[in-house]
Specification:
- This protein is of the alpha/beta class and 241 residues long.
- The chain has a single domain, classed as Rossmann fold, CATH 3.40.50.720.
- The chain has five helices and seven strands.
- The chain is globular and about 50 Å long.
- The protein starts with 10 loop residues before the first strand and ends in a 9-residue tail after the last strand.
- The mean pLDDT is 96.
- Bound molecules: NADP nicotinamide-adenine-dinucleotide phosphate (NAP).
- The site of NADP nicotinamide-adenine-dinucleotide phosphate has 24 residues, from helix 1.
Length: 241
């Protein structure tokens, strides 16, 4: 039964720390471990003790590379990518094929899926040899097995692509390190900027960002390295691909 332990970790890379869930994760991790240092890349500054923030107007391969150059000497025990969006200046999720646009689909995939393997490539040699977790926030709607409603083409497909990419990363890294935990986690419906417009018709529980952060940490620190490559719900349940 080997797992990562929150009390033993020293360095966390957290992307999306300016967001609802990312911000709550930042607070939760720093509160639970007084020795922890958190590193981040953000479009807006994050000023807090024990947080090292590189500000860049765009998060892409170039700014991720600047981030890794700035913290080249750091060995990370935990990497969490919470960056993601459902609606931006290009519009909101598609209700039907009528709403599809090439530009929108490309941007969904760039932000919600592509940034993660680009980060994985760059961070490979900065992961602790003692054991690490590499986590991204996916979404239940990415599940093809549980899709009964349709719509939301770009968001669903980009998160499904993210799951596929995470599975592949888990296989590559698992060959050389058995203490490697690569997880795609659905945080549960959470009251944030991303979801507020869409939560009005939700009949299941809506979590606060603090609840979501606690649940995500329970999943990360409660899951054995042997389950690397899983797509997990906020309560630890495996979600169908
Ligand atoms: N809330 C939910 O119910 C829910 C459900 C399932 C999955 N999720 C997933 O959970 C993650 C966190 O979402 P949240 O609810 O916390 O949303 P949020 O409050 O809107 O936070 C989103 C984060 O992603 C960043 N981001 C968005 N687009 C970006 C871009 N183009 N470039 C760089 N950074 C960008 C934001 O940065 P800025 O502050 O600079 O905009 C922010 O840090 C997302 O991946 C989302 O898909 C959320």
């Amino acid at each position: 039964m080997e797992k990562l332990e929150l009390k033993n970790i020293k360095n966390v890379l957290l992307l999306g720390a300016s967001g609802g869930i990312g911000g709550a994760l930042l607070e939760h991790l720093l509160t639970c471990n007084n020795d922890l240092q958190v590193y981040t890349l953000s479009r807006s500054p994050i000023e807090r003790a024990r947080v090292h923030c590189l500000v860049a107007p765009v998060v892409n391969e170039q700014s991720l590379s600047q981030l890794m150059a700035a913290y080249a000497a750091v060995k990370f025990d935990l990497v969490i990518n919470t960056i993601g969006y459902l609606e931006n200046e290009l519009g909101g999720p598609e209700k039907s094929l009528r709403d599809i646009s090439e530009e929108k689909l490309i941007e969904y995939f760039r932000v919600n899926a592509i940034l993660t393997p680009v980060l994985a490539k760059m961070i490979r040699n900065n992961l602790s040899s003692e054991g690490y977790a590499f986590v991204c926030l996916s979404a239940m709607v990415a599940s093809m097995g549980e899709n009964e409603l349709g719509g939301w083409y770009g968001y669903r497909a980009s998160k499904a692509a993210l799951n596929s990419l995470m599975k592949n990363i888990s296989i590559e890294w698992g060959r050389t390190n058995k203490k490697s935990l690569v997880l795609a986690i659905h945080p549960g419906t959470t009251q944030t900027r991303l979801s507020e417009k869409f939560n009005t018709r939700v009949t299941h529980k809506i979590h606060s960002p603090q609840e979501a952060a606690e649940n995500i940490c329970q999943v990360i620190f409660g899951t054995e390295f042997s389950r690397s490559g899983s797509f997990l719900n906020w309560d630890g349940r495996t979600i169908a691909w």
